[in-house]
Amino acid sequence: MSVAAPSGTISKLVRAAAKAGVPLGGGPDRYGFDFKKRSLILFDGGEVAINTSTSPQCGPAIANLLSLKELPDDETDGSPTLSQFRNGSIYISSFRVSQRDMFESVKRVTGTTDTDSKITYGRMFFPTGDGDYQSSLGLHNDLLGLPAEDLDEFTAIGVRIGENGELSQSH
User: What is the DSSP string of 98-115?
Assistant: First the structure.
């Protein structure tokens, strides 16, 4: 969305989407998992890896980015600076995982097996690698001092949130 969009535009769009029944993050359409129903839609066989970040990783990424000095001290200064990212993007990731990787983590943290879940198949993740920017563009995790995270730890949190309905699908 353009930075020139009128104030409140994003909130209005989110409310309209929720009112229209458009699924927003955190529901069963998130990565294909419905923890309450113990069901999973595997997109493209569940083998395509994507990058994804946890909420606890995003805050420090922004804080660490904004704490960088603006410009190099001189032409020999190779330390990271905010100016490196001017008119560009930063790439962070907690995990580069496929749905199969996620499902294996779900089974580890819940003590379940394949037979405990209803699995259906669909098409969404295309093997072009568009969701895997880590392999094509690299990450800025190290530059920003971000810690490695444990997939099973955050899977357990996601399962709890999904099973308990802690994350609303509307705003």
Answer: -HHHHHHHHHHHHT--GG
Strand order in the sheet with 118-122: 33-34, 39-43, 118-122
Render pLDDT for 36-70 as a digit per residue (tens, 0 to 9): 889 998 887 888 899 999 989 999 999 999 999 99
| Tokens matching residue 165 | 């309905």
Which pLDDT tens digit goes with each residue over 10-33?
A: 666 666 766 666 554 555 557 888
Q: How far from 168 is each of 26, 118, 121, 164, CA to CA, in Å?
A: 7, 23, 25, 10
Beta carbons within 8 Å of 168's beta carbon, 6+ residues apart = 26
- In 3D space, the residue among 118, 125, 119 whose CA is nearest the CA of residue 98 turns out to be 125
pLDDT of 104 > 70? The answer is yes
Sign of CA dihedral 160, 131, 9, 16: negative
Q: Tokens 């990787």 — which residue? A: 101
For residues 91-101, one letter each, b for 16 or more C-beta atoms within 10 angstroms of the residue's C-beta and e for the rest, the string is bbbbbbbbbeb
pTM equals 0.70
CB half-sphere exposure, 75, CA atoms < 13 A = 0
The per-residue pLDDT for 170 is: 41
